[in-house]
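Researcher: I'd like a structural prediction for the single chain below. Treat it as a standalone chain; there are no partners to consider.
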Amino acid sequence: MIELKELNSKAYPTTPEIDSNLQILLERVNKIRVEWGKPMKVTSGLRSQADQQRINPAAPKSKHLLGQAVDIYDPDLSLTAWLKENGSQRLIDAQLWCEEGNRNWVHFQCVSSKSGNRWFLP
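Model: Treating it as a single chain, here is the predicted structure.
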């Protein structure tokens, strides 16, 4: 199972809102983890504004800043393929949304995309 400390591995200061968001995200991603049945490695969870600027300055309002997003390592895209296997049903069941087109990770977020689509372009 993914642990809460993995979502904030750099121990950034949080607020009650961020703590709540991280807990919701953890519960929902672990639903996927249990169904997937394989280990999942967190590559990025909660980010500081400085980290966000370094990682992706084009997304200054990233859900990572609020504890609402996590990136999971997916080097062979097998997790991505599995998630898409039954359309979006796995994401619907877990109440998660995913960015489309990532090369070696899955970006999960626990809030709807702007489009409302379970798979969306950033």
